[in-house]
Design brief:
Layout: H1 3-26, H2 29-63
Length: 64
C-alpha cells in the first residue's frame, strides 16, 4: 500500500469521525450515520490493502 493510499484512507477515516461527532452534538442522525459509514469504508479499504500486501509478501517469499 502506498503512502498516498494510507494518507487518503486515514483522512477519510478522520473526516468520518468528525462528521459522526458533529452529528452526535447536533442530534443529526443522518450526519452521524454518514460519518460512521465513511469510517467503515476507509477501514475496509485499509484492510483490503493489507490483504493485498500480505499476498505480495507470500508471493515474494516463494519466488526467492
Amino acid at each position: 500500500m502506498s503512502f498516498t493510499d494510507k494518507a487518503k484512507n486515514k483522512a477519510q477515516e478522520l473526516a468520518g469521525a468528525a462528521k459522526e461527532r458533529v452529528g452526535d452534538m447536533t442530534d443529526n442522525e443522518r450526519m452521524r450515520a454518514e460519518g460512521a459509514t465513511e469510517q467503515s469504508d476507509a477501514r475496509a479499504r485499509q484492510a483490503g490493502e493489507h490483504v493485498k500486501d500480505a499476498g505480495r509478501d507470500v508471493r515474494d517469499a516463494f519466488t526467492k
